[in-house]
Every structure is written in C-alpha cells, then in structure tokens.
Amino acid sequence: MNPPDKPLLKPLSPQDWESLIEDFQQGGPRHHKWTAPNLLQSLIDQAFTSLLKKDFLLKLPLLLLLEEFSETFFTHETHLNRLLESLRSVIQSPLDGVTISYYLKEQFMVSTTSIFVTVNALEKFHSRFIEGLVELLVLVINRPNHSMDRQTRAIACECLRELEKCWPCLLSNIGGHLWSLCQNERSHACQSYLLLFTSVVFNIVNTKLNVSILNTSVPLVPFNVPQWVLSGGDENGIGSKEVVVGLNYKELRRAMAFLLESPQLFTPSGMMEFLGMVMPMAVALELQASMLKVQFFWMIYSFDPLSCHAVLAMYSRFLDVFDGQEGEIFTRLLLISKETHHYLVFRLLALHWLLGLLSKLMISGEVGKYKSIFELGLRFYPAVFDPLALKALKLDLLAFYSICLDRLKLESFSGEEVGIGKSAAKLFEDGLVSVSAFKWLPPWSTETAVAFRAFHKFLIGASSHSDNDPSTTRTLMDSTIFHTLQGMLVDMTLQFQRLVPVIVSYTDRLLGCQKHCWLGERMLQTVDELLLPNVKIDYKLSSYLPIFDRIAENITIPPRGLLDLLDKFMVFLVEKHGPDTGLKSWSRGSKVLGICRTMLMHHHSSRLFLGLSRLLAFTCLYFPDLEVRDNARIYLRMLICIPGVKLRDILNQGEQLLGISPSSHSSSFFNVHSPRQHYQNLKKSRNISAYIHIERTKPLLVKQTWSLSLLPLGDGSAKAGYLESIRDSDPSVDIRDHNGNENLLTAPETERICKSQEPLRVMDSKISEILEILRRHFSCIPDFRHMPGFKVRISCHLRFESEPFSHIWGDNSPTSQLDGADGLPAIYATVLQFSSSAPYGPIPSYRIPCLLGEPPRNDDISGQSVSLDIVPIEDGATEEESFRAPVTIDLEPQEPTPGLVDVSIEANAENGQVIRGQLQSITVGIEDMFLKAIIPSDIAEDGIPAYYSQLFNALWEACGAPSNIGRETFQLKGQKGVAAISGTRSVKLLEVPADFLIRATEQYLAPFVVSVIGEPLVNMVRDGGIISNIIWKDFASDSFLESTTSVTGLERGPLHLTYGDDDESRSSVNISKRNMGCIFVLIFLPPRFHLLLQMEVSDLSTLVRIRTDYWPCLAYVDDYLEGLFLA
C-alpha cells in the first residue's frame, strides 16, 4: 500500500493496517514513508478511531505499534489527550466478552503507561496528562475485594508502581489511601497493592521526604502532582530547596510493621522485590534486623531458589544478626545440593552459594567460624552418580575448603595441626574418587578435564597471580598436597600411557605461568627422578616421548638420565626391527632425534657431549632407517664441529626458515605458523594465476560460454523431467482385498489415474525384440546413486613461469644464483583441489611431487650443460614437456551438461613458504561427455559391431514416437533403480562437401560410428582406413533406412522441407542432387543417456537427424555440429 501525498481521508481497512504495521516493523524506507508530518496526524486520528470501533479486530497489534513507536507518534499534547480519552472510554465501557474484554483493558493501561514513561510526559508536557492517567488508574484500584476484575486491578497497581519508579514520590500524597486499600484487599491482587505501597514508602525513606503516610485528607480524585515533584529533583532524585527534609519515623515504622506482617502473601519473585526495598528501609529507619530474620528466615527451608536467594541476600547484609547460624545455613544448602529430586540448576546454585559464603567467612578472618563449619567439610564429597557439572563444583568446593584448612593451620596453635594437615591431603585424595574413571577414559573426555581442573584448583589453592600476593612458591612446593599430586601424576604416567598428553598439557600450563612456573619445573624434576628409572624399555616407551621433550627443554634437569634411557630405547629399536616393523622405526627414531635437537637448543654442548655423541654415533651406524641415520650424522657433525652458541643460532634459524614461530616447545605436536608470515603469503597468492597455469592438453572444439539449468517444477518434492533421470523401482503391490475385490484405497491416486489412461497394447515381435535389447543394455549401466558411475577424464598439464615466480617467491638461497636449468625454481608437494557447481559429483584431488619452472623465453638452455637431475623424456617428447606436469581430472557426471571446474593449488616453495591460491578454471564441454556404450560381458569380440548396430536401431525406435515402447521402464545394474526413455527428435542441415564431412567424422567421431550405409559412401569411408569394425551395408538391402527416410532412391531430385505434420518422415530438405548414403553414430552420455546421429550424406550438403533421450543436450549438440563441420 503506497501512502498518498495528502492526509488520508478514507479510513484504513484492517488489511491496510496490517500492511502499515508490517512497514513499521520492517524499518528503513518502508518506515520513513509514513513519518511525514502530513501523514502522522491522520494516522493517529484513524488509530484512535479504530481502537474505539467494536468491529475492529486489530486493537492489540495497533496498541503495541503505538507503544513501540511512541516517540514517533506522540510529539504533541493533543496526541496524549486523545490517548487518555481513548483509555477512559475503554475502561468505562461495559464488558461484552468480544470487543471489550479485561485483556484489552489491561493491555491498554500497560501501553499507555509505557508511552508516558517513554516520552517523559511529566517533563515535556503539562502535568495534567500525568494527573489524568493517575486518576484513571486510581479509579480502577479503588475497588478492593471485587473478585471479577482482580487481575485488572493488579495490573493497574503495577502501572502505578512504574510511574512511581519513574518519578519518585509521585504518589506520596495518597500514601494513606494506598495503605487503606492494602488493608482491605483480600484477593491475590493484594501482592500488587503491597508492592505499590512499599514502593511509595521506599521512595519517601530514600529521599528523606517529610510527608505523612497516614493522612487521608487529600482526596484520591482529583489527583494533583506534588509540588516537590514538579519543581525538579536534586541529586537524590526529588525535592526543591523549599521542601522540609526529614523523616516521620513514627508513621514510617508503623508502615514497616504492617508490611512485615504479610510475607506469606508474596510469591517468590514478589518476595525478591519486596525484600530488595525492605532491607534498605530497615537500615534507614534504624530497625532491628532481627525482626527481618524472624519474619523471613523460614524461607531457607523452602524448595524455591528465589526464596532461598532472598534469605541469603539478607544474611549477607546482616551478618551479625545471623551469628551462630552459619552452620544451619551451610547444612541446608548442602542438603539442597544432595537432594536428587531438585532440579540440577537449583543444586548447582546451592553450591555456588556455598562458595560465596565460604569466601565471606574467609574475608571476615574469624577463626571461630572456621571451626564451626570444619565438620561440614567432610560432607562436601561428590557422589559417584552425581552429574559431571555437580562433581566439578563440589571439587571446587573441596579445593576451597582445603584453603580454609590451611588458614586454620596457620592461625591455630593447638595440637590439632598435624591432624589438620592430614585431613587436607585426605580431602584431596578422597575427592578424586568420584572422577576416577578418567584413568580409563580417552584423554579428550570431559571427566578427564574435570579431574585435572581439580588438580590445578587443589595445587594452586589460595595463591593468586598477583605480584602483591604474600604466598610464595616455596610454600606451595612444601605443601602436602603438592607432594601428593606429584606422586599421583608419576603413578598415572606409569600405569596409563594415554594420559601422558594431558599431563604434558597440565605441566605446560604451570610452566607458562610466570608466578607458578617453579611448580612445573619441580614437577618435571620429580618425573625425571621417579619416572625414568621405572620405565620399561619396549614399544610403549614412545608414549612418554612428549614428556621427555619437556624434560629435555628444562636446563635445571641434568640430561644424563634421559640420554641413557634414549640410548637403551634406540638399541631396543635396532634389535627388534624386522620386515613387519614398517614405518614404526622411522617414526620413533625421528621423535628421538627431535628430543636430541631440543637438548642441543637448550643445554650447553659440554654438558651433552659424551652422552649425546654416543647416542648419535650409534644411531648413524646401526639404525635401520636411512633418513634417521642421515639426520643423526648431521646432528653429530654439528655437535662436534660447531660451538654451542652458534649451534643454537643455526637451529633457531632453521625453525624460522620453515615458517615456524619461535616457541618454547619446538617439538610440540602442534606447530603454529607465524601470523605475519601467513599474511605475507596470503598477499603474494592473490594473483597466482598470472604465472601458474593449468591448461587442457586437448583444447575443446567448442568452448561453451553458457549452461542450461533446469529448475524443479511442482511442489519441489521431486525434480522434474530429466533432472530425475533415475528413480527407485516400485515394489509390486497387490491392491485386492481378501475377498478378491479391488481395493482402491491402497493404491495411490496418481497410480490409478496412470493405469486408467494407459491403453491396452498388443506387443508384436519387433517391439519385443527392441525391449529385450534395451533391457540388456540398461542392465549394464550402473546406478550412480548406489555404486560408482561412469568416469569422465579430462587431461590437463600444470606449468609455471620462472621469472615472475622467482620475483615474488624467490630468496637469496644458493640454488637461486645458479645458471641454466640448475637455477630454475621449483615447487614441491603440490596438491590441486577441484570443485564445481555443475553436477559432477566429488572430484578427487591431484598431487604432484615436484615441478620445475619454465625457463624465460629469451633464455635458451639447450646449449648449456643440463644437470643430471633433469632427465630427458624419451619417445620424442619436446623439451618444453619437461617443465609441465600432467594432471588428470576425474569427473563422475550426474547429468551430461557442460560446466566449469574451479582449481585451487597448495604447494611449497624451495624456501619453505606455503603457496596457496586459485588458478584458472577448466572448461568442460559437451564433447567431454561422449563415451562409447558399454558392452555386455557375454558379447564376443567379433559380435560387437552387430550389437552396436542393433542397439542403435532399438534406441532409434525408442526415442521416436512415444507409443513405440509405451511407458516401459528398464532396470539398472544393482536392481535398485529404474530408468525410462522419453525421446526427442531434431534435424540439422550442414552445407559442407561430403569429403570434408567424412574427414571431420573420422577425426572426432570415429569411435562412435556403428554403421555406414550406401555403396558410394561405404567406398569412400573404407578407403580412409580410420573407421573400422562396424557394419557396412548396401543401401538397396537396408530396410531400416527406407523406413526412417521414406526415400525411394538415392538420386532423386531436390527435397523441400514441409511444415505441418510432426512426422519426421514427411520432412524434406533441399540437400543435394545425389544422396550417397548414411552414417549412424551412437554416443553414450553418462550417467545413462544417449545421443543418436543419422547423417544423410550428399555431395554438397548433409542432413543430420538427431534423436536423444536427454533433450537439454540438443542446444549443446547444435553448437558442436556447427563447430565440427562448419568452422
């Protein structure tokens, strides 16, 4: 609906209002077109008029629209006046249950209140509007105990409370009347009355306003805004300087006494709001907090989280009042966490409350309170069948409780100190029983993470990461829990090798912390002392190599023990090596050399020389893997010949050349590439297709620049036409009941319609023979949905230009300064990834180990000495092919359509840089889809030409008139899917000489020719010697051509094309003076389609009759024939 340029005169219909509401909700231009000044006034007038109509059904959505966009609609006093008049009309209207209901009245009050608060009506407009709204709301609530509208009165109280919150002390003059209403109300709406009265009293106390709340001399109606509200507020929210400040304690305490007598009238959420106002008032009025405890402490035993939270909030504010009852509160919260009938979130909340209360007790520093809850600590243990989240919180609670025990040990000097220390250690060990299954679970399990989180909590304890923390690392290292944890980790490492990566990660966490790194080093020293002597020398030792790597990094641990262990392990690998070892020896030997490299980088050479040289010498002499021996020989020479400082610089530089960021854990499992290096590589890879090329080996005859895309018709449940080429075979269902009668309810409606439309057919022997040939042919075609389909291979080659590649990716390496072929750049470990939006199925990637760059055009390296690394290719290959890598793209088409294949490359340069980017796309043409029809396995080699000829004849008939084979379906290989033939016919006139057509056919279509008819044509094709193993027929004896062309002789006069009938046999074309014969071509289009060409060759022109069971290919075939014969 378009808004007019002048104010709207015609009332809007409900449909127009729906469009308007949608425009406002949409925002943007659709919203702004309604905000013109000449439209807003008309819209507001019609809105209020529509709200008062009885037959208008969009009252609630319209109210919500006015509320949401109140700052747009209500910009003038007349708008607020219309709003108040409409509210008064709705409130005073009698109920009819349809147009005027309680729900409408309640929503109207809520929306009006929200609008007044949003537009700040008291400050921006005259006070009479606020007074009018308050009068209407007060009239609604001034009917206590009226049962019919109790919910409406409660909503009115909530609206008044919102006005009181927005403008404090707005209702202070009628506080006495509100008190009276609270005393008289007996329905469930009394909570709203009490909260309203409490809000008024709270604002009076908070602003220290001297006003009487017992005075009822001021009438409810008419209502006047207090003068101190109109005169503007001070920093506390209200009051002018002329207002007397001071509290009437006597009246306010009487009001508080009244409020404290009604806690049972509140719901849990209402109690939260009530206590949030009562506690500050009790402090301001200097009341005894014990009164609050007496009235509200019973709620700690309720089963509602809000009630318990209200008591705990009161306990946190008045700690002195609850002195001595901490144990009772702790016991109740502990019972809540253990009672399984509670919701899990309630049980978790109880544990959070316990942690908070324990923190408060620790901050208070009272040792006596610690001892009062000491006995409760033994009840914090998690149960075995507790949820994992509950176990984690209980373990946190136990860890915090251990901190309390340490504080008791420091502050108490009784004879219980030793007992307390033992209890803390026992607390740690017994608490882990509930998560002991992590020893058998995988290292990535959540229970394992919870257990090691508990380790960290217990170990760190009260120590923080702040420099001002008085606790020292020495204190933690001397603690009982640290020694217990050390022994436990060593035992777990020996018994459960799968936990080694998790223990290593935990140690890395300690080593990475500046405050607690000494704990990690001490733990590694313990592992070196206790683990290494007890490790068994076998293949399982390789599981400990990650933690050995951390030991090798630590300069505080002597490397002798680790070197002796690695020496024994290498001897074991040499002795156990055999033909079944495979790559295990290489993998383990490489990891041991990685640890040796770590030692070289972190220890002085003099400290390592004897042990490490003996290990490396043994490895380079006796280790079975050649690569490991070579690497060991390199490390041994570096250790002997290079001083320690230079050796460490060389090893660090080697890491940087590999693109690895400097890390304290150089041999960790996850090496992270430098972000700066990655950004530079990404910038270099933007124009990578300018110098790295992938091209087709055989160019396409026709480069298709478009592709036909068919969208599904109908409801989208199935694809239409040829897009649904194969469907599942329907099981045969007997639709007769037990009496032999036909049961129409069990057969689908479409099946019955199809059965009723299909006429009875009498199948002759010719049709039976055609169907038998087609069934045999389709039974050899695989169903690509359930098994691998036909593959289409596209041959390409990859090459790159040396000069631009070296300019972008080159470096100052020695190889880049050589001359000739030795100086050409190379890329290694190239991976080509393929993707396409065409229906080609998943395309496998292609890998190229190494590829040399093409030499510059003006640089002839043929006369130079070629390196032995470049081996000349035999069989007459040119020198350029040495710089090209063959690439094969394997497609599995699901439809025979042209398309594009996107190519992305990832390779390594000689200097270690990673090359990533997008190359040129490869075009796939319709000619790539041309395949020979599959031959059944029982056909002899000499019977293949006859089989192809019979198949051509059968498919030609099937793709002709629809009535030839009816609605016959053919089962595919695998017997899960069936396919039907729906043929299409076309013709194409090619004005080319016969000899040119024969040469083009021999060059491009020779594999697909199945038969040649006509003596002149047979002689010419046979003389060429390219087309063979086909059926050669004389035209006079061929009945098939006579039936399809209806031509009585080859040398008739000119033929003329006639339009009108659909019969192909009546079409005549001016082709030539003499017909030479016909060439029959059978092309298979994967996954299961066919293309049939009957070329009627004449001297100067050829008429091509085309039949296919995939009509979208006709457009591509037309371009292909023009490119083949007319180019």
Radius of gyration over alpha carbons?
46 Å
Strand percentage, roughly? Answer: 5-15%
* Outline: flat
SS elements, strand count: 17
Structural class: alpha+beta
Mean pLDDT: 78
Strand line-up in the sheet with most strands = 12-17-16-15-13-14
Largest sheet: 6 strands, mixed
Helix count?
42
> Helical residue percent?
40-55%
Q: Please give the alpha-carbon distance between the first and last residues.
A: 57 Å
Low-confidence stretches: 1-6, 234-244, 413-422, 656-679, 711-723, 731-760, 812-818, 859-877, 1036-1072
Protein architecture, described:
The chain is α+β, with helices and mostly antiparallel strands. Among the domains are: 1-125; 767-780 and 931-1035 and 1072-1126, no CATH class; 791-808 and 825-855 and 882-926, Immunoglobulin-like (Sandwich). The radius of gyration is 46 Å and the shape is flat. The N terminus is likely disordered. InterPro entries: AP5B1, AP5B1_C, AP5B1_middle. This is AP-5 complex subunit beta-1.
